Amino acid sequence: MRRLYLDNAATTFPKPEPVYAAVDNYQRQSGGAVGRGSTARALAASRVVERARASLARLLGQVPSERFVFGYSGTDLLNQALQGLPLQSGDRVVYTALEHNSVLRPLHQLRVERGIELIEVPATPQGTVTVDAFRAALAGGPRLAVFSHASNVSGALLPVHDLTELCRQAGAWTLLDACQSAGQVPCSLRDCPVDLWVASGHKHLLGPLGTGVLYLREGMEAILRPLRLGGTGSHSESEQQPETLPHKYEAGNLNAPGLHGLAAALDWIGEQSVEQLWRHDQERTAQLLNGLEGIPQLVLHGPPAGPDRLGVISLSFPGLDPQEMATILDQSFGIETRAGLHCSPRAHQALGTLSAGGTVRLSLSPFTTADDITHVLASLQEFATGMASL
Ligand SMILES: Cc1ncc(COP(=O)(O)O)c(C=O)c1O
Q1: Residues of the chain with pLDDT under 70
Q2: Cys staple from 364: which of 114, 178, 182, 311, with CB 3.0 to 4.6 Å?
Q3: Residue 310 sits in the same domain as residue 202
Q4: Chain-centre distance of CA 234, in angstroms?
């Protein structure tokens, strides 16, 4: 049976071919620890990691490369951002109902431990957030606002430029969760000057699992406390964590194999261009959504095809548990989707899918072809016809 992986919102698969080669070559031939020592081996490993940083700086609008800090996942660095800010009792934090548990749970913990006050921006039934609702939530003068660039449930792209400007006017720090958008939606951190920006290295940045990245706008390093302290391979005589970037937030050996893969992935993205990858995603998403509209038994969630959404598509078959639907798609049609709440329970509340146990999510990648979409549509049509005849 033909198998098709459509859970790219969790982690992309496959990766570009040079990613596998880079990890394999590092593991077999190179093997040096990044920033440790001055042997040719160690220096070669460091150069590759600096190349990855420089590629990120180019991808995100020519910002200084040392402001990108590597970690182990989006979750790792969202925790660094949220727990590292000097939030105190009574400080207000605005977040949207679309946020992932990697934001919601640290915020909940900060409410319990530090007494911060949380203000949720409601999402619409289409699974997006309006500028007006966001503006209203800022009225109380928050210290911080956290928002996703793209929802991992509805696929909605938020108007992040407008939201960032509103936060600037309100005097709030901004943390942008770009885990779903980085690498596929063009974005410049010059035009959208958030204070903190976090992405997974293993989603649309196309690197291996075990990689993530945090960007700090100029000056934020004086505010953000590092959560992990230890060896950096620099300033070793000092008892204090170095204040220099990126070392301040990169204690301990980096995931060198993962970052070699990420460096190769970023080269590949640079060759394709993020604009081209974005066009590809929009075309495949439109093809899928248009076809799904022709299968009346299925309920589609999220915005229509267009510039306000990406290729993360949630759907339901009324009366059928999403887990069961995903199992049938996997076992009978070879289509690997993801069922449930996708770690974003508040988003499902907005869509009205919480009590049904969530949705079945199909998420695309640069390697999803027009023929793959045709195959998915034929399979879903057969599935829906079969279910209706039971
Ligand atoms: C919007 C969003 N934020 C954060 C995360 C967490 O990223 P990671 O899997 O790299 O920890 C995810 C993962 O699915 C996500 O979709």
Answers
A1: none
A2: 311
A3: no
A4: 31
d(CA 151, CA 163): 15
> Do 286 and 233 share a structural domain?
no
Atom number, ligand 1, closest to the C-alpha of residue 98: 1
Residues 110 and 185 in one domain: yes
Output the domain CATH number for residue 88. 3.40.640.10
What pLDDT does 37 receive? 87
DSSP result, 282-331: HHHHHHHHHHHHT-TTSEEESPPSSTTB-SEEEEE-TTS-HHHHHHHHHH
* Domain closes at, from 223, 239, 272: 272
Pair of tokens at residue 211: 């990689």
pLDDT (0 to 100) of residue 388: 82
Same domain, 120 and 234: yes
Asked whether the beta carbons of 301 and 98 are under 8 A apart, the reply is no
Residue 234 confidence (pLDDT): 84
Which residues are near ligand 1 (CB < 6 Å)?
9-10, 73-75, 100, 102, 148, 152, 177, 179-180, 200, 212
> Which residue has the CA at smallest separation from atom 16 of ligand 1?
152
- Do 127 and 169 fall within a single domain? yes
Between the CA of 68 and the centroid of ligand 1 the distance, in Å, is 18
pLDDT at 203 (0 to 100):
98
| Nearest-CA residue for atom 14 of ligand 1 | 10
286 and 266 share one domain: no
268-290: pLDDT as tens digits = 999 999 999 999 999 999 999 99
What pLDDT score was predicted for residue 215?
A: 98
| Tokens (6 digits) for 386 | 């079969």
> Which stretch of DSSP H or E encloses residue 85?
none
State residue 11's pLDDT score.
98
- For residue 38, the enclosing domain spans 17-272
Hey, whose CA ends up nearest to atom 13 of ligand 1?
A: 10
Q: What is the pLDDT of residue 338?
A: 98
The tokens describing 293, both together, are 């509209």
* Same domain? 283 vs 187: no
